Structures are given as structure tokens and as C-alpha cells.
Amino acid sequence: AQSVTQLGSHVSVSEGALVLLRCNYSSSVPPYLFWYVQYPNQGLQLLLKYTSAATLVKGINGFEAEFKKSETSFHLTKPSAHMSDAAEYFCAVAEQAGTALIFGKGTTLSVSS
Amino acid sequence: KAGVTQTPRYLIKTRGQQVTLSCSPISGHRSVSWYQQTPGQGLQFLFEYFSETQRNKGNFPGRFSGRQFSNSRSEMNVSTLELGDSALYLCASSLSRTPDEQYFGPGTRLTVT
What we know:
The structure holds two protein chains of two kinds.
Chain A: E1 3-7, E2 10-14, E3 19-26, E4 32-38, E5 44-50, E6 56-58, E7 64-68, E8 73-78, E9 87-94, E10 101-103, E11 107-112
Parallel strand pairs in A: 2-11
Antiparallel strand pairs in A: 1-3, 3-8, 4-5, 4-9, 6-7, 7-8, 9-10, 9-11
Chain B: E1 5-7, E2 10-13, E3 19-24, E4 31-38, E5 42-50, E6 53-57, E7 64-68, E8 74-78, E9 87-94, E10 103-104, E11 108-112
Parallel strand pairs in B: 2-11
Antiparallel strand pairs in B: 1-3, 3-8, 4-5, 4-9, 5-6, 7-8, 9-10, 9-11
């Protein structure tokens, strides 16, 4: 069965600092991989997705992620954090068919001024 | 284009009661998936409907059921509510059965007392 591990349930950075949120997946076949963001009392918003095209994926709000098959990782980065980036971030994996997503436990990002 | 809408947004029920939640997908989307989000278990896939048929189901008891109508609107029902059913229930819609672009609604917050 596929699974997703997000290292660090809580990450704190200063405004302007690099954001790095870690995600490792287990899959025997090339998966679909996603990063979603959730703001308080809201649903999930898709940040970016990997679907076996380019390994470096650019998303919205300046975020990007790199698919590394050898490390089974899909870490999310942003060069310079903004206060508005404070939210909960979820990494997810999906099988080739169907829409079921398997989510990691989430990482709460705090940004201080 | 209107996003995914979920009604009601908030709901309080008593143990033993049943509840029905509604999800209206983005116009033209034919696939609807449901997820349960709790602090302890995180985001878990409930089921997926496409063309009025359940295509996939997560590991939840039979008290959790759903259906999809010909206009792609979907409902999920939970019978004999338990305290542990308190959660944010999210639905997501997509054009087809591929997982590469799902749009989430704001969720229904269910509290069971």
C-alpha cells in the first residue's frame, strides 16, 4: 500500500527565510504526487503536482518541489517566506487510476516577522 | 466558474442520529470524492463516485455511505453517529477519474455530542 511521510509536524521560519517542507513516499510505480495547502477553516488548495513530466515542478505562490525517485522524496521549497504562507501543508500520493489521495499527516508552517 | 460547494458548513448532531452532507461539484466535473479530516487520523479517503457509481472506497465502516445523482451532485450519509465521527468532511471534484487535478470544497464541520 502506498504511504506518505511528512517529516516535522511543525516548521517555523522567519519572514524572508527559505521554506523547506519534507515529504517521502512509498510506491512501487511512478506515482502522482501533490502538495496542498490548507488555511484555517478552509478546504485544500492545490499548490503543485508531479505527474511524471518534469522532475522540478513549479506551483503557485512561488513554491516548487523536486521529484527524486532515488530518494523517494518530493520536498516543497520556497526561497523566501512570507507571512501569508503560514498554513498547514499536506503532501499526497495517488495511484495511477482513480482519484483517491493518500495524505501525509501535514506540516504546520509558522512565519515570524 | 463556481467552485465546489458543500452544505451545510456546520452541523451539530447527537450520538445515534444520522446525518446527510451534500456536495455540488464544479460544473462539468463528473467525479466526486469524499474525505474525512480529524486531528488524530488526518485526512482519510472515504469514497469516490463517478457517473453515479461508487468506484472506490476507503477503509470505513458500513455506517458511511454515499451516492451521486445524474447531475453529479453527491451526498454522503453517516448513520448511528459516534463521537469519533466528529470531523471536517471534505469533498473534491474532478473532470474525470484521474487524480491529477482535484478541487476541494470548504468542508462540512460535523460535531457529534
